[in-house]
Amino acid sequence: MAEPETVMLTQLAEGIYAWIQPGGETGVSNAGVIVDDDGLTIVDTLMVRSQWEPFSQAVAELDLPVKRVVLTHAHVDHVGGTKAFPHAAIYATPDTSELLDQVMPIDAYKAFMPEFETEFDELAEIGTRPVTHLVETAAQLTPRIEVLSASGHTSGDLMVLVADADILFSGDLCFFGVTPLAFQGDPAAWAGVLDAVSELADIIVPGHGPVGGEKELRDLQSYLQHCAAGNIPAGPWDQWTERSTRDEINIERAALLRAGRDEMPPAMLRAIGWE
């Protein structure tokens, strides 16, 4: 059996690092670190200890205080490691804050991501930190960091822009090389938002998958447009991971929204053991 790839902080520009987990499949997300005059800003915190512990150790090796954590949305694979940064302010949208105050649906997580079942038991015990600062509109978080609110993947997405380096941390508004998941999103609206995203930066750190740019974004946009139309032809997405279940979820979600029903798709309910 091949050894798992070692994940490390990858420097993208002066004082900007990405933590890219190989594969990018369900439960395997990315994070970022931005160096500012007063210390570090963390973008997302991964999910379970086997992920966030090596990430937080790599961050500690930068030997700078962690001042802020920005959560791009409330899904567990982006927020599970908030307690690794106990002294940082936590920034997120009101939607994310509200969801983090609720009891985690651990049984659903186990059904959807059984490979992390044991670690979810620990996550249920330790929990996550509450949001300390709400972000409702675009805001200049620090002299070099701007946070931008959007919706598409969820109703409470945040992006982190470092304009001086032409780098955007998109959260799950971008999946590159991995089939996106829209069980709480709107494929049509999400595709539309990507036009604005494309104008923000040339280098995009997605929520899942490798660092990319315009081509990867347009492939994602085209896929989402086909989901909204209810038919996915052959295309570059044929090489993406996790097509088998996510196509059905995304098409069902788009159809429900067209019918005026803001509901979780039946395929997703089955995947999390709720049907």
CATH names the topology as Metallo-beta-lactamase, Chain A
- According to CATH, what is the class? Alpha Beta
Number of β-strand runs: 12
Number of domains: 1
Cα end-to-end separation: 36 Å
- Percent range of helical residues: 25-40%
What's the gyration radius in Å?
18 Å
Biggest sheet descriptor: 7 strands, mixed
**Shape summary:** globular
Please count the helical segments. 9
Name the structural class.
alpha/beta
Structure description:
The chain contains 9 helices and 12 strands. With 275 residues, the protein is an alpha/beta fold. It has one domain (9-271): Ribonuclease Z/Hydroxyacylglutathione hydrolase-like (Metallo-beta-lactamase, Chain A, 4-Layer Sandwich). The protein has a 7-stranded mixed beta sheet with strand order 1-2-3-4-5-6-7. It has a 5-stranded mixed beta sheet with strand order 8-9-10-11-12, covered by helices on one side. A hairpin with a 4-residue loop joins β10 and β11 (167-175). α4 runs antiparallel to α5. The longest helix has 16 residues, at 214-229. It is globular and about 50 Å long.
Question: In brief, what are we looking at here?
Answer:
Helix content is 33%, strand content 21%. It is α/β, with parallel strands linked by helices and 275 residues long.
